[in-house]
From TrEMBL:
It comes from Roseospira marina. This is CoA transferase. The keyword Nucleus does not apply. Keywords: Transferase. One of its GO terms (molecular function) is CoA-transferase activity.
Length: 403
């Protein structure tokens, strides 16, 4: 487990992002950019702040471990955007920023006087990332959306589960939010590049369901060409065999992926069953006898512990990996060697272990300076340094409930 690296210049130093988003998708996009030097000012409602602060396992400070991870490297400013003074301050901050991020339901920012037209008027080079369940346009635009809904509408949930069972959540994490955050970060970087060249900002419209739909490999072109509706395939796939999850003798599981005849021949070799190549040497033969082939592989993996299966397959150049729990990951030497876990200090909480920064950059690596901040920790500093608001002015705003 690694500690945070020493300070060094980063590629997004000097970029300022005003992050009014909540929960995961928008904030994940800005957290990625914050790791690489962007100054991210997280704007939160006075009193409660981002509801994500209370989502998941609470810490001694009251903020959840999930929030500490996904609000990394940000500054927290409280600001009530439903009040005229809050709107005025937000616009003033937007005028001094390069990016604004929000993920309210479409029309919310416009009702507050903070829509794209209003913000662009105060900063023509501004980039605005807007994340919502269904996007800013279309007949579903006003519907609320979360990752679970995006998985369903985008076509992923229908694929998840056993063939004879109900559709299930594809993993227990908010996958659609994280995918949308990645697309959002890419969009921001491209828009910033355009703004540098032209002085013109732009609006980035990301719908959670679209991020999910974009990663469904051949589903769309195959349906258009053949009318095929792919269903749930369980642990395997209709395109390759053996290609799934197999139990081992110690109760643990492995994933094995044989996507070609050559891969299967290697597996037959490590199983010491060369006769399997004669019987099932082609993909067509294996797919026609999928249950038999999978049963033969399972009978073999059950004869030894998981680590032995992985070792034998690896030595025989067969793609195979342990199906890890998080406990396995913390003990895995490869995760340790790659520094995939980083231990950082959180104010009022103590040491917190987080997933490390991605992507890896050889010349300008990102880093985690600190986990998510306490609510409003930077309000005074930001309003004084960026907008020149005096202590008396801030006291008035605080008394009025604006900050």
């Amino acid at each position: 487990m690694t500690s945070a690296p020493p300070a060094s210049p980063r590629p997004l130093d000097g970029v300022r992002i005003l992050d009014a988003a909540s929960f995961i998708a928008g904030p994940f996009a800005t957290a990625i950019l914050a790791e690489f030097g962007a100054e991210v000012i997280k704007v939160e409602q006075p009193g409660g702040g981002d509801p994500f602060r209370r989502f998941g396992t609470p810490t001694a400070r009251g903020d959840s471990l999930a929030f500490l991870s996904e609000a990394r490297n940000k500054r927290s400013v409280t600001l009530d955007l439903r009040k005229a003074s809050g709107v005025r301050i937000f616009k003033a901050l937007a005028a001094k920023s390069h990016v604004v991020c929000e993920n309210f339901r479409p029309g919310t920012m416009e009702r507050w006087g903070l829509g794209w037209a209003e913000l662009r008027a105060v900063n023509p080079a501004l980039v605005m990332l807007r994340v919502s369940g269904y996007g800013q346009t279309g007949p579903y635009a006003d519907r609320p959306g979360f990752a679970r809904i995006a998985h369903a509408v985008g076509g992923l949930t229908h694929l998840a589960g056993m063939p004879d069972g109900p559709p299930v959540t594809p993993g227990s994490t908010s996958l659609g939010d994280y995918m949308s955050g990645l697309f959002g970060a890419v969009g921001i970087l491209m828009a910033l590049r355009h703004a540098e060249r032209t002085g013109e900002g732009q609006e980035i419209d990301i719908a959670l369901y679209e991020s999910v739909f974009r990663v469904l490999d051949e589903l769309a072109p195959r349906y258009a060409a053949e009318g095929t509706v792919r269903g749930r395939e369980g642990a395997g796939t209709i395109n390759a065999c053996p290609h799934g999850h197999f139990p081992c003798g110690d109760g643990a599981w492995v994933a094995i992926a044989c996507t070609s005849d050559k891969m299967f021949a290697r597996l037959a070799d490590v199983m010491q069953r060369p006769d399997l190549v004669d019987a099932y040497g082609t993909t067509a033969e294996r797919l026609a006898h999928r249950a038999t082939v999978d049963d033969l592989v399972e009978a073999w993996t059950r004869t030894m512990p998981r680590d032995e299966v992985v070792r034998i397959c690896t030595e025989g150049h067969v793609p195979c990996g342990a199906i890890n729990t998080i406990a396995d990951i913390f003990d895995d030497p490869h995760f340790a060697a790659r520094g995939n876990l980083v231990r950082v200090l959180a104010e009022e909480v103590g040491p917190v272990t987080l997933p490390n920064v991605l992507p890896r950059m050889s010349a300008t690596p990102g880093r985690i300076d600190h986990p998510g901040p306490a609510l409003g920790a930077d309000t005074d500093a930001v309003l004084e340094d960026l907008l020149g608001l005096s202590e008396a002015e801030r006291a008035t705003l605080r008394g009025d409930g604006v900050i």
